[in-house]
Amino acid sequence: MLGEKYFQLDMSYWGRSQRLVIQILCIWALAAYGLPALVLETNKMKYLGFPLGYYNCAQVIPMFFGFLLLVFNGVQEGIEAAQTDGKPAVEAASSSALNAMLAKVYVAYTGGFVFFVLFLGFLEAVGVPDQAIGILFVIFTLGMYAAIGIASRTSKRDDFYVAGRNVPPIFNGMATAADWMSGASFVGMAGTLYALGYDGLAYIIGWTGGYVLVSTVIAPYLRRFGSFTVPEFIASRYQGTMQLPGGKVVELSGVSRFLATIVLLSCSFTYLTAQVYSTGVIVSRFIGIQFEVAVFSGLIGVLFCSLLGGMRAVTYTQVAQYVILIIAYTVPAICMSTTQDDGFNKNNPVEFLAYGGTLQAITLREKEMVLLGLASKVTPYLEPKWRRVDFFALTFCLMVGTASLPHVLMRYFTTPSVRSARRSVTWSLGFILVLYMTAPAYAAFAKLEVYTNVIGTPLSVLPKWIFTYGSIGLITVCGKAVTSVNEAIEACAQATSGDYLLKLKDLKISKDAMVIATPEIAGLPYTIAGLVSAGGLAASLSTADGLLLAISNALSHDIYFRLIDNKASIQKRLMISRVLLVVIALISAGTAASKPADILSMVAWAFSLAASGNFPALCLGIWWRRANAQGAIAGQICGWGLTLAYLLGTRYGGWELWGGISNVAAAVFGLPVGFAANIIVSLLTAPPPANVLAMVDSLRDFKVTGEDLTAEELEDIKEKEEALARTQVPEVPNTAEATAQATSEFTAEASI
C-alpha cells in the first residue's frame, strides 16, 4: 500500500468518467458517420464556393474531432479537480523548466531552417545547379538529425525506453504527429485525394477520428500503468495459469505477451520497410546516387537517433522533423493558394478556405473534357464512387487501427502524467490537422492544373516535369514511362507530335508522385521542390525511428528480458536493444532495396492487423474487469488470425472478397470476432486473479497529486507507481524473485 496520502479511492470518479467517455463517443460516431451519410444531399448546398458535403468531410469533421478532445479534456480535468477539493493537479517543476528550454531551442531551430531555405533560394537565383541544391537539402537534414541523436545519447533505462517520462505535452504532440505522418501520409495523402476525389476523404476522417479513441479509451490508462511497451501491459493485465493434459502448468501472461509481440511485428515491419523505401527514393532522386546505396545511406540518420539515445533522441529528433515536414507541406499549398482568383477567393493564403472555386472549376472542366472528346467519361471528383458500406468500413478500420498501433501508443508513455498524456493526444491531433486540412487543397490545385494545362495539349508541348518523373517510373503517357517528346509520340502511336492532343486516359500519375511533383506542375522554384522532398524525407525518417524503436524494444524487453533471461542487467538489456536496432534496420533496408512490388499496398494492412490483434485486448482489459487471460489469448488468435487470413487469401490466394469489402478494411471481420472470442471465453473460464482485479481498479482510480505535496514527494510517487505497476503482477514464476528483480533494477539505475 502506498498510503491514503497518495491515493484516494472514490468510485464516483470512475462513474463520472465512464459517462463522459460514452457521451463523447456517441457524439464522435454521429459526426464520423452521420455527415458522410448525407453527402449527396448536402453537396447541393454551397459554402464559400465549396459543396457543403465535401467540405464537411474534408474540413469540418476533422476540426470537430479536435474540438471534441478539447471539451473532453476540460470536463475530465474538472472531474479530477473535484477529487482534490478544487485544487489543480501539480506537475513537477522540472517539466515547466524543460518546456521553456525546449521552446527556445526549437524556435531558434525553426528560424535557422527558414534562413537555410532562403539561402538555397538565393543560390538558385544566382545559378547554382538544381542537383547541388538537392544535395544540400539532404545533407543538412540528415546532419541535423544525427546531431540531435548524438546530443541526446543516454545509458539510462527510462531515458532509452520512454524518454525519462518527462516530455511536455506540446512537444510530445509534435513528436507524435511526425511519428504518425509517415512518408505514405506526407506523399500519399494528397495523391490519394487527387486519384479518388471524395472517397479519399475516408482516410482523413479515419486517421483523425482515431485520436478520439486514443484519448478517451486507451492512452491515459496505459500511461497510468507505467509500462514500457504495449505487450508489457497486455502481459501484466492478462495473468493466470493453465494446466495442459500432460500436467504441465503454463503461465498465460507469457503467452499473451508473445502474441502481442507477434501482432506488433506484423503491423510494424512492412510499415518500417515502406519508410526506408521512401527514403531511398528521395535520396536517390535528389543526390543522384544508386537507389540501393541511397536506401542504406538514409539509415544513417535513423540509427544515429535510435541507437545512441533510444526514445529520448527519437522524441527530440521527431520534433525537429515535424518542423521541416509541415513547412515543406504548407509552403507550396500557400503559394498556389495566393494565385487563386476564382470569384470566391483572391490571393487568399489560407489554403483550406481558398479552394472552393477550384473545386467548381474542376467540375466544369470534367464536363468540358467530355464535350471536347478529351475523355469518354469522367468520374465526378466531388461525388462518392464507393458504396457507403465500403467508405464506412475503411473509416472504421483506420480509426480503431490508429488507436491500436504500438508505435503511436508508446509515445504517450513518455509524458509526465496521465493529464499530460490526454493533453498530448489533443496536441498530436492539432499538429496532424495542419497537414490533413491542407491535403485536400493541395490535391484540388494540382488536379485543376493538370486538367487545364496538360490534358488537351499537343505532345510537342508537354511540360518537362512529365519526362522528369517518367524517368523514374512515376508518370506514364499512353501506358509507357517516357523521357522525351519522341518517346511520347511513339508511345501514343502517332506520326507527328502536332496533331494529337493528350487525352485524360493517356496520362497516369502515381499517387506517390503528386506531392513531390506539384511544385514543378505549378511552376514554383526548384528550391520549393527540394523543400518538399526534405519534408518527405523527414516524414519517412521520423516514422522509421518510431517503428524501429517499437520493434527492437518489444524484442529486447518483452521477448529477451521477460521470456528468456529475466535476470539480465540494465546494461545488457540496452546492449541487446541496440544490437537488435541495427539488425532490424539492415533487414528492412535489404528488403526495401529489393523493391518489393507489394510493400506499399501492404502498409495499409497494418491498421487492420493492429485493430484486430490489439484493440480487443486493450479495450476490454481497461473497461471490463471480467476479461481474463484465456479470453484475451482466444481473442488475439481468432481476431488477428482471421484478419491475416483474409488479407493473404484475397491478395494471394484467389479468395473472393467477402461482401465486396476490400482487404484494406479486413478488420471489419477480425475485430468483432476478436471481441466475441475474448468475451465468450472469459465468461466460460475462471475470473482474473485478485491481484489483476486490483491492478484494473488502480487504473481507474484517481491519484491525488495536490499542492500539499512537495516536488520530492511527487517524484517519490512516480517511482513507487512505476515500481508497483511492474511488481504487483509477477512476471516470473516466483513472486519473491520478481520483487527482488524490480528492486535490483531501481538500485542499479540509481547507480548509473
* Number of spatially distinct domains: 1
According to CATH, what is the class?
Mainly Alpha
Radius of gyration: 26 Å
Strand content: under 5%
The structure class reads mainly alpha
Descriptive overview:
With 752 residues, the protein is mostly helical. The chain has a single domain (10-84, 100-141, 175-456, 503-700), classed as Sodium/glucose cotransporter, CATH 1.20.1730.10. The chain has helices at 11-37, 39-42, 52-82, 93-125, 130-151, 157-162, 169-180, 183-196, 201-225, 230-237, 252-287, 291-337, 356-371, 388-402, 406-409, 418-436, 439-453, 464-470, 485-491, 514-521, 526-564, 570-593, 599-603, 605-623, 629-652, 667-684, 690-700, 711-727, 735-751; strands at residues 46-47, 50-51, 241-243, 249-251, 475-477, 507-509. The strands form three sheets. A two-stranded antiparallel ribbon has the order 1-2. Helix 7 packs across helix 16 (418-436), helix 9 (201-225) crosses helix 27 and helix 24 packs antiparallel against helix 25 (629-652). The radius of gyration is 26 Å and the shape is globular. 52% of the residues are buried.
